[in-house]
Each structure stands twice: as structure tokens, then as C-alpha cells.
Design goal:
Distance between the termini: 114 Å
CATH topology of the largest domain: Alpha-Beta Plaits
Number of strands: 14
Shape: elongated
Mean pLDDT: 84
Oligomer: single chain
Number of domains: 3
């Protein structure tokens, strides 16, 4: 007669946590990721688990498993960890954040020394893998114990099949906590936050759904190149798919200030795509556009439409943010608002605008010494305030040192490289200027201003034909472009001796011209 093996078992709450995109984080910065994750474990995860009478029984490179005697303690621990992680990630570049998924299950486990095995562990791990970044999923057995005992919102998501488990598992999302975590996360950063909702397929043709989703995903990806924006991830924005949503509610739930939405409609042999940018606080429409294309050129134009939408939206966003910042009272403004005011003054024509721009950037840096873009713009304001290429050598040197510091602070911020190129230009170091600007455009080919700046340096470097091609691209991306785009067109046409076109471009330029603009008009008429 066979003698059965008696296993030790017990009923416990299992918490499974995992780092989102761990492999990509390690590939990008192995040492930095390891140090940050270890810090989170020793300073937050392990103390919080211990505080709730839990115990970590397995540590993996990208996560952990813990057991609790009380499922209420387990869920409260998960909530606290996600909220604290949101705060810790505030101000950290998006591609460097440690973001968790957490699953909690109450079930039977096999006890083997200090380790735990069995269905209870498997279900918690499966729930964790289904959770969205920053989110918490709990099982039906856990829900039955915690409902009405937690100050959080629990949303039923249906039943899920779990490998090697015969019965489907009820799944609940701690949705209120996720929204709070996102709001805390985003409100703590200085960046404007934006969500791209899934473009609606209005064509009545299910085969066009791939195109609607593809455009949405491309816009999210390309917007993410702008390091001055916080772009909500796809899986968060796609939860609103096929829903009639109130944009203001989306703004509250995702903690964003702006929303992009749109639709795709098939009209015979043509396809119409519409897109609009909306202020999520007021519900006001800031921009909208329609794109009509032939269906047979669908894939060929997808990149073009995406790039045009992204470039236009980011330009409108900057204008909207500047308007908000300029309406605020002076006083204890955050660094970001000081920076935006500096950009506004740098575009201005009043006698003291250049000085006020420099002072605004200096104020931003005083508040945030590692604000890379503020350093880059301060470098530009120094030479602009002191006569551009005619600035004294010590000013040009100070500007160069400031611009190089900006690049060191954030090598992946495209505008830092572009503005470093501007400083090289004013030092007559044209090869270095072109190389820096090309680096900036390569980092973000959707930045119309970066493309226009590159056109500007080519226009004064004997490559005026190339300059006009790039400038045309920048103007197409940003139809409501600043006046200085016209200035680049003026001197590029002048370099090519196309005087009539040069004169027309100059007269399109702002009425508040600087002396050399008037001098060039006179030269065209000579």
C-alpha cells in the first residue's frame, strides 16, 4: 500500500509585485536600474511589508512575492506601495521610472521551509501580470474579505482563466487607488501631461480598426520623443476604447491636462482622419484638423499624418502652456512656469524682453538647478541679449559653457543639442553647429522648431537650397509657426539671389522688424 506524502499547507494572502519593462530598463542602464530598485526595496517595499505583518519569501530581479496573515493588510500594503512609488517617480524621466504591477490573492499554499508554492502563488502572479502599470488587481476570494473594509474603489473586471486552474478567477481592480496614484504621479512633475485616446473607427469596416489603432499608437510613440511632455502609456488610454467619454473625466482619472482624440472614416475610395486637441480641465477645443487620403496610399501616409499631428499638437501645447503661465501672478512660481515665461519673453519685441527672458531662466534654474532646458535657453538668452554674433567673447564663452552643461544634464533632450548648435553658430563654428543640430533633429524628428533651427544654420553656411527644403517641412509641421521661421526663409532666399521672393517673404514677416531685416529689404530693392 502506497503511503501518501503529507504536505504542510496554510491559507494566506499572497502579494506578487513585478517591475514593468524590467529588461528594457536594465538594457538601457543596468547599474542605475539596479541601484534604484535596491533603494525602493530597502526603503519602501520591505519596511511597508513588515509594517503590515507580512514577509517576503521570494526575491527576483524584477519583483517579489510576499505572504500576509490578513488580506486587508496585503491590499493596504499594495495601495501604499503604489502611491509612494508614484511620488518617488515624480520628476524622474519617463524611461527611467521604476513602475510596478501588483496582484493579491487569498488562497491555499504549500509550505516548504521559508518558501511557498501552489495555486495560491500562481493566481497572485497571474493577477500581477494582468494588472496595468501602476495598478493593483485582486482575486474574488480577496475581494470577499476586503469589501467594505477599505477606503478604496474596487471595480469588477470579469472572470479570467488561469493556467492549471480549472475554474475561472474573479478579478477586481483597485481602480480608485490607481487613479489617485496617477494623479499624484503626474501632478508632482513639472511636465504637461497628455493622453491620446484610441481613434474611433467610424468607417463601419472592422478591417480599418488596425489603422485606427496604428495611428493612435504611433502618435503616443512619437509624442514620447518630447521629453518635456509626460505621455500616458497605451494600456492606460486604451481602456476608454469604444466608450463615449467625458474628456474632463478622463483628465481627472488619468491626471492629465490635455487629451487628443480623433476618428477614422472610410468614404468610398478615400479615408478621412480627424484629430483634435482638447483642454481636459475646461473641455475647450484648442486645435482640430482633417486629413483626407486615398485608401491605396494608406500605409504610405500613416507616418506623414502621425508626424504632422504630433508636430502641430506640440506647438499648440507649448502656446497653451505659455498662456497659462503668463496668466499666473508673480511670486512663488514653479520652475516650469518661470521657464515658460522666459520662452515668451525670448519671442518678444519689447526693449526689455531679452533681459526679462534671461532673468526668468535664471529664476527657473535657481528653483531647479538640474533643469536642462532652462540652462540651454539661458545660454541662448545671453547671446540674444548681447547682440547675437556681436556679443562679447566672454558672453559667448559663458553661453557655450551653459549650453554644454545643459547637454550633460540631459543628453536625450533634443532641444538642448539644437540650442547648443545655436551657440556654436554665434561663435562662427558652423561645422559644430550643424553637427549639434543634426543630433537634436535625429533625437526628435517631430520637433518643427528643431528642424527650422537646422534650416537656419544651413542657410548661412552655403547650403541655402537644403535650408529651404527643411524650412518648408518645418512650416508644414507647424502652420502657426513663430515669426523667426520667415526670417530664415528671407536670408536663405537672399543667399540664392532670389530677391523678389526674398522681398515677399520679408514683407510677410512681423511688422516689428529688427534693423537688419529692413537692411535686407533695401538690398533686395537695390
Amino acid at each position: 500500500m502506497a503511503i501518501g506524502i503529507v504536505m504542510d499547507r496554510k491559507l494566506v494572502a499572497i502579494l506578487a509585485a513585478d517591475v514593468v519593462g524590467y529588461s528594457a530598463l536594465m538594457e538601457r542602464d543596468e547599474e542605475g536600474t539596479f541601484v534604484r530598485l535596491k533603494s525602493h526595496r530597502t526603503e519602501l517595499f520591505e519596511p511597508e511589508i513588515k509594517k503590515r505583518h507580512g514577509r517576503v519569501f521570494k526575491l527576483m530581479g524584477d519583483g517579489l512575492l510576499a505572504e500576509f496573515a490578513s488580506v486587508v493588510d496585503a491590499v493596504e500594503c499594495a495601495v501604499t506601495v503604489q502611491q509612494e512609488m508614484a511620488k518617488r517617480n515624480a520628476g524622474v524621466m519617463q524611461d527611467e521610472r521604476i513602475v510596478l504591477r501588483i496582484g493579491v490573492h487569498l488562497g491555499d499554499v504549500i509550505v516548504e521551509g521559508k518558501d511557498r508554492h501552489g495555486d495560491g502563488v500562481n493566481i497572485a502572479s497571474r493577477l500581477q501580470s494582468l494588472a496595468e502599470p501602476g495598478g493593483i488587481l485582486i482575486s474574488g476570494t480577496a475581494y470577499d474579505q476586503v469589501r467594505n473594509k477599505l477606503n478604496t474603489e474596487l471595480e469588477f473586471l470579469g472572470e479570467q482563466r488561469v493556467k492549471n486552474i480549472p475554474e475561472p478567477v474573479r478579478v477586481y481592480s483597485v481602480s480608485g487607488t490607481l487613479a489617485v496614484a496617477k494623479a499624484v504621479h503626474i501632478s508632482a512633475t513639472t511636465k504637461p501631461a497628455i493622453a491620446v485616446l484610441p481613434f474611433a473607427n467610424m468607417s463601419g469596416d472592422p478591417d480599418q480598426q488596425y489603422f485606427s489603432d496604428g495611428v493612435t499608437e504611433d502618435i503616443i510613440t512619437e509624442l514620447s520623443r518630447f521629453r518635456s511632455l509626460l505621455v500616458i502609456a497605451r494600456n492606460s488610454s486604451f481602456q476608454y476604447r469604444d466608450q463615449s467619454v467625458d474628456v474632463r473625466r478622463v483628465g481627472r482619472e488619468l491626471g492629465v491636462s490635455y487629451v487628443i482624440e480623433g476618428s477614422v472614416r472610410k468614404l468610398g475610395p478615400r479615408l478621412r482622419l480627424t484629430a483634435q486637441l482638447i483642454d481636459a480641465c475646461s473641455g475647450n477645443h484648442l486645435w482640430g484638423e482633417r486629413y483626407d487620403r486615398n485608401i491605396e496610399e494608406l500605409f504610405a501616409v500613416q507616418d506623414e499624418i502621425t508626424q504632422t499631428i504630433v508636430a502641430t499638437v506640440t506647438a499648440r501645447l507649448e502656446d497653451a502652456e505659455i498662456k497659462v503661465a503668463s496668466s499666473k501672478r508673480q511670486g512663488n512660481l514653479p520652475a516650469y512656469d518661470c521657464f515658460l515665461r522666459g520662452v515668451q519673453h525670448l519671442r518678444g519685441y519689447e526693449p526689455d524682453d531679452n533681459r526679462r527672458a534671461r532673468e526668468s531662466f535664471e529664476q527657473a534654474i535657481a528653483l531647479d538647478p538640474e533643469y536642462a532646458l532652462a540652462h540651454a535657453y539661458l545660454a541662448l538668452s545671453l547671446v540674444v541679449e548681447n547682440g547675437y554674433s556681436n556679443a562679447p567673447e566672454e558672453i559667448k564663452q559663458a553661453a557655450l559653457e551653459r549650453a554644454l552643461l545643459a547637454v550633460r544634464l540631459d543628453r536625450r533632450e533634443s532641444r538642448c543639442h539644437v540650442l547648443l548648435g545655436q551657440i556654436y553658430r554665434f561663435r562662427d563654428e558652423f561645422d559644430l553647429a550643424i553637427a549639434s543640430m543634426e543630433r537634436g533633429v535625429a533625437l526628435n524628428p517631430n520637433d518643427a522648431n528643431g528642424i527650422a533651427h537646422l534650416a537656419g544654420i544651413l542657410g548661412v553656411s552655403g547650403r541655402a537650397e537644403e535650408a529651404l527644403v527643411l524650412l518648408h517641412q518645418a512650416m508644414r509641421f507647424n502652420p502657426s509657426h513663430p515669426d523667426w521661421y520667415w526670417g530664415i526663409r528671407v536670408y536663405s532666399l537672399y543667399a540664392l539671389r532670389r530677391y523678389e521672393e526674398c522681398l515677399m517673404a520679408s514683407r510677410t514677416y512681423s511688422q516689428r522688424k529688427r534693423p537688419w531685416h529692413l537692411a535686407r529689404e533695401a538690398a533686395c530693392l537695390a
